[in-house]
Every structure is written in C-alpha cells, then in structure tokens.
Amino acid sequence: MSIYGIGPTTARQLYADGMRTINDLEKRYHVHGSDTEAETTQILKSKPNKLPDLSIKVGLQLREDFSVKIPREEVEELRDVVIRELEGIRPGHISTITGG
Hints:
- By secondary structure, this protein is mostly helical.
- It folds into two domains: 8-66, no CATH class; 70-100.
- The protein is 58% helix and 0% strand.
- The protein has six helices and no strands.
- The chain has helices at 8-16, 22-28, 33-46, 56-61, 63-66, 72-89.
- It is elongated and about 50 Å long.
- The two termini are 18 Å apart.
- 6% of the residues are buried.
- The model has no long low-confidence stretch (mean pLDDT 83).
C-alpha cells in the first residue's frame, strides 16, 4: 500500500493474484529499471498543462520521488503561492499544513 494508486482493496486483490514483492508488481505493470525515468518523463510532458493519470504503473515509476520529504520551508512557500492565487479568485481562505 506504499505505492501511489494501491489502497486496501487493490492491495488485497493484488495479494490474491499472487503479488508479493515490488518486483512482482514491476513485472505485472511492465515497469523496467532503465526505461522508467524516460517513460515517466514522457508521461509527464505529454500533456504539460494537465495532471497525468497517476496509475499504479506511474506510482511504481515515481515511488522513489514520492518518498522524498519536502523541506518545511518549501512546503510553506508552496502554500503561500496557492493562498495568494486563491485570494485573487475569492478572498478569505485559510490553510493548515499537515503531514510529516
């Protein structure tokens, strides 16, 4: 369940299907080591103004990136940008940074 796109229900189904390791998942979803970065870059650049469909395959490809902690200062800067944009649309927003 540490892979983006795999929640409890999908994890149970994958387990029932014999998936036991990350390698099993990579084989099932055709994720190959050296191809991963290039393919992920292609997916992300294919529609630059639209968020990509973060499927299990993409979750597998980006799992290392998703596990990197973002420094608190960077999170606060991102929050400030979002709040500033929201204020231009509709004033009065508040935010709370959560997570670790």
